[in-house]
Amino acid sequence: MRYTGPKNKIARRQATDLGMKTTGSKSHASLLKKINIKPGQHGARYRRKVSEHAKQLTEKQKLRYIFGITETKLKKYFTVSSRKEGNTAVHLSELLERRLDNVVYRLGLAPTRAAARQLVSHGHAQVNGKNMDIPSYLLKNNDTVTFKSPKTKEIPYIQVFRETNEIIIPEWLELKKDSGSLVKTPDNSLIEQQVNLRLVIEFYSR
Question: How many domains is the chain built from?
Answer without folding.
Answer: 2
